[in-house]
Amino acid sequence: MKEDQPLPGNQPRVILLLGQNYKEQECEAARAFALMLNTQDIKHLAPHLTESTVIESQHVMTPLVGKEAIISLWTEKLLNIKANGFRWIRAELAFLKQNGQPCLIVQQGEERNAVILFKVDKGKIARIDICGILPTPDDAEGTGEFPGF
Predict the structure, then answer these.
(1) What is the reported pLDDT for 21?
(2) Assigned domain for 3 exists
């Protein structure tokens, strides 16, 4: 069956166009965020953000929007991380087992407690989702790569 032909039952075929390198771009976004966390240096993430970038956590009610707001929040968070010891938190590049989507597994101390997902638009991070409930770290397969370590 050709891609432009309808599926059996006369249902139209829907093709989602994400671009050939969307997973590569999400990997780069994940790598930048991991490098920021693992080195406690915001400079690795800042160039990938825009004024419309959204960061949202399942543990916080209100999303944060915009490069300056995200940099401000994460600069403060990184100072707190540094105060608790250099390797207290670390991020591993990973892929969701269900669909192969690039992500990060975040570990605090010995506990793997979050998955971070990324959406990229025009080469910049459009959205960052910090997930502690779904998906869980058990839903992702780590690569063993901890950028910055």
Answers:
(1) 66
(2) no
